[in-house]
Amino acid sequence: MKRREELNKLVDMSDSDLREEAVRLKESLFRLKFKLALGEMDAVKRVREEKKTLARVQTLMRHRAAAETTR
After folding, report:
1. Going by fewer Cβ within 10 Å, which terminus of the chain is more open, N or C?
2. Proportion of the chain above pLDDT 70, given as a percent
3. Would you list the DSSP string of 16-37?
4. Pick the CATH number of 3-70 from 1.10.287, 3.30.1660, 1.20.120, 2.60.40
5. The dihedral of CA 56, 1, 29, 23: what is its sign?
């Protein structure tokens, strides 16, 4: 998925969906890092993509929280 499409999808998510997505990404990263450490797969690119997506989700959550506190 293109970065812009992914960002639009994330922006359209509700707060609870974003939290669920963050949990899913953290679990996915844990599993990927574990497999990478065991040498089962070579997924360095996928690990990077997951980390970036998690950062985007966390940034959106922080922006929404900041917008709520300023109201």
Report:
1. C
2. 99
3. HHHHHHHHHHHHHHHHHHHHHH
4. 1.10.287
5. positive
